[in-house]
Amino acid sequence: MSTSLRIAVLVDPLTALVTDAAHPRALCAQLSAPGHNVELFGSANLARRDGDGARRRERVGASLSAFAPELVVAYDALSPAAWMGARAASRAGAALVVVEAGAWAEGRPAQRALWRVGAQLWGRYVRRRTWTAVALEPQAATRLHEQGFSPDQIELVAYGVDLEEHRPGRASEELARRRIGGRILSARTHHVRPESIEALIEGFAATVGQRDDWSLVLVGDGAPPPRVLKCAYRAGVGGRTHFLTLADEALAPLLSSSTLYASVGDDGAQAVGDVERALACGTPVLAVEGTRPALLVEHDVRGWRVERGDARAWSAALARVSSAPQARKRCSLAARQFAVEHLGWRRLCEAVVGAAELHLEARGAAVQVAPRNAARA
User: In sequence order, what E strands does 221-370 have?
Assistant: First the structure.
């Protein structure tokens, strides 16, 4: 009786260039935790043996066959990795799970060209071999349906949040070191247009920025654009607008220490993931109506939706929310509860491992895999 599965995770190098390569690494770590034998195949920059719970295989063909997986997980349903995963699953009699994210639907020109090739050459073959198509966002589910996957194949699951790392009550050493106290309005500014950041700054300045007990903390990749810095000082909140560059491990304590988190109009996968992490920390979210992050924010339940992303809209939202401490507390509790029920890694691990379980049952194999509840949340 087997107590674990051999799981191969495949990522095409081109897919890795235009998506968040951290996701397959994290998935490998989560699947390895309960004892599954997991190997990551594909781009050389994706994994290291000492960091993600899985070995890296830069060569795929022969080494994948030698691994003899019982479950194959391939990112991007139209990528060469999905085609190779379908072949490997067919030869090994394994289940195939494809993983798709809404952010990949637009793609870069080279990737869109590759998708057209994939749709023509191996799309039908991959669909036929796929046991479960995991969509990480509603847009991804729509894309999979348009690619020809049946509704019975598609399962909508969140990206996955480490609920132990992202939890309420954590103190931010970075905020303490910089002596930033009081109530915190935080936002991430990666890949966000300067005018969107300026709108938030101006909305902050017109409302809670006039009080001494609120600070605006903007987390970015480096020094802010000069125009954004000038906007803060022009609005009179330069002394309470803080631009930080944080290591990944410092983001969760910041989110947990925040009173509110603002999703500043960015519509990418990272923005969705940041909102999920904020909710897991019990931090109510303000998100711009019509964006993908706003789909996670039930209005006046886990946060609030801002009708549009200009300064007046941010001002109206902040004025309303800042004067309602009981509503913020209620939304904080609801945000954490939602994250526990829907956003943890356990749901994704269950979808992936469950596909193998059902596949083995369908083949009549009496194999007992590791318990589902062993996967970390």
Answer: 241-244, 260-263, 285-288, 303-306
